[in-house]
Input
Amino acid sequence: MPVSFAEYLDAKFDLDRRSLNREVSDAFRQALHALPKVECLDADDRA
Output
């Protein structure tokens, strides 16, 4: 059954999320949130 690449990616994303170890996923999210935040200093200076 042929499917579009976008449909394949949607299905693969859902499968990948379900296959993640919750403890590993939680640790990754905590580490990610602990990183310094990026700020755009010149956002208001656009012409």
About this structure: The chain is about 60% helix and 0% strand. The helical segments are 5-19, 22-34.
